[in-house]
Structures are given as structure tokens and as C-alpha cells.
Amino acid sequence: MQNKDKNECYVKTGEIQTTMRITVILAHPDKASLNHAIARTAIERIEENGYSVSFHDLYTENFDPLLFGDEIPKDAILPEVVKEHCEEIRQAHGIIVIHPNWWGQPPAILKGWIDRVIRPGVAYEFLEGDSGEGIPRGLLTAKVAIVFNTSNTGVEREQQTFGDPLETIWRNCVFGLCGITVFHRRTFGIVVTSTESERRRWLQEVRETIDRFFPET
Fold first, then answer.
1. Residue 165's domain spans which residues?
2. pLDDT tens-digit profile of 166-212?
3. Most buried residue among 74, 142, 162, 194 by CB atoms closer than 10 A?
4. What is the CATH number of the domain that holds 154?
């Protein structure tokens, strides 16, 4: 179990409404994967604790990751599915992302989701007079973002050899830029050699993590 984050801030009982909605994004093509088990466990615990969930299994939904030029402008007319994702992420009180570590990156379908949904006017904006060369201001109202990863690379090698790029991507490039300061990421591994008892412990840790950041209302 990892130590509590230094910037950790709980969503406390009594300070929220039971209608608070948590967005859960899953990106793994195998329904028998640990990623899917993590998603099921997280959703179950979130609902047990009194929150509602917006859940998207990007592969099952066949989310199109391609961002075309006419979608880039802030005032672009967006496809309906992208508009729905944007509105959900705009209104979310918490965000959970679940995906494997593939080449130190999210799967392509999830990268495309970031490109199309974490967009100007929804997740961030540039201040007046800033033509885009400066630092944007985050717009997301979510107080907490959690990322659950799976990996077949050991923690020491991931950090020393590769520099743990997923930490930089999610903490700094995505959620930090969009105004979310309470961030928690946990990588479970090594999955390929894991035992059933290890995976059970990992799923229990998922429940405990949900309880820490989204306690019972």
C-alpha cells in the first residue's frame, strides 16, 4: 500500500451531495483482464459509497480516437459522442482512468480520447490576450483524479530506466494542466507473473483507494 499523497485532500462526508458523479474511463481490449476487474471493483465501491458513475469502456464503445483538423478549434462543431464525453468530464466531481502501460504510454484509443475530449473551453483555457503560447488555466471542476495502471515492468526499472513517463503524462500534462491538484496513481505489477492472491490484494487496494478519496456519503 502506498503512502498517502502529500497533497491528498479527501472528499469529506457531509460536504457533498449524494448526486455527485464520478467519471470512470477504461481502456483495455480484453474483458478478462485485470484492468476490467479493477474497473468493476472501483465502480462497485463508488456506488456503495453513495456516488453515481459515468462509465465508458472505450473499446466496447468503439470510441474513435482520430482527431481531425475541423475538430481542433475551440468553437468547433463536435460529433455528438464527443460532446457527450466533454459534458460528462466538465461536470464530473472526480475522474478515474484505468489502463495498461503500453510502451510507457496509454493505449492509442485512450490517447485519442484525451485529444478529443480534454479540449480548450472544456478542460482548460488560455487567458485573455494569450494566443496559446503561455500556461493555460484549468477548467475542470473535479477535485480528485485517480489513475490505475497495470504493468509488466518492475517499479525500479520503470523509474530508473524509463523515467516513469505515465506519471508525467497524467499528473502534469493532463490533470495538473486542467486544474486538478489532488492526484493519485497506482501501478499494479508485475501482472504476467502475478498470483490469484496478489490480484485479490490489488483489488482490495482499489477498494481502499476509493474509500480514501470518495468516502461513504
1. 21-213
2. 999 999 999 999 999 999 999 999 999 999 999 999 999 999 999 99
3. 142
4. 3.40.50.360
* Structural domains in the chain (count): 1
Q: Quick check: bond before 38 cis, omega within 30?
A: no
Sequence-ordered alpha helix ranges (H) in the chain:
34-48, 80-91, 108-117, 155-157, 165-167, 196-213
- 18 φ, ψ (degrees, to nearest 5): -70, -10
Residue 160: which residues within 8 A CB-CB, separation 6 or more? none
User: The C-alpha cell of 151 is what?
Assistant: 504493468
pTM > 0.85: yes or no: yes
Query: Model confidence over 37-69: pLDDT tens digits?
Result: 999 999 999 999 999 999 999 999 999 999 999
In a domain, 1, yes or no: no
**Spatial separation of the C-alpha atoms in residues 212 and 31, rounded to whole Å:** 27
Residue 132 lies in a domain: yes
